[in-house]
């Protein structure tokens, strides 16, 4: 029984340092914290009228990734370094 507790502790410790936050989750988190709909986010990003909401949706579900210029706008809106936004090893905790 003691070894089971030790194994659980090791797993919890390892899990704490192996946190991953994918770009799609970060993009959705930023939009949610801003209180924007996908359409409003498209406006804030300066996307053209053609399929703009669909693009935001695709990025948030991981079907594609925004161009670098769009990522820069996301990072500016979230007030964070772009490196933190694009690095999956960086877990973001934003307070806007």
Q: What is the strand and helix layout of this fold?
A:
Layout: H1 2-17, H2 23-34, H3 38-45, H4 52-61, H5 68-78, H6 82-86
* DSSP strand content: under 5%
Q: Residue share in helices?
A: 55-70%
The CATH architecture can be given as: Orthogonal Bundle
Most strands sheet: none
- List SSEs in N-to-C order: HHHHHH
What is the rounded Rg?
17 Å
Number of helical segments?
A: 6
CATH fold descriptor = 434 Repressor (Amino-terminal Domain)
| CA distance, first residue to last residue | 45 Å
Overall average residue pLDDT: 81
- Find the count of extended strands (DSSP E, 2+ residues): 0
Query: Which CATH first-tier class would you pick?
Result: Mainly Alpha
- CATH homologous superfamily name? lambda repressor-like DNA-binding domains
Structural class comes to: mainly alpha
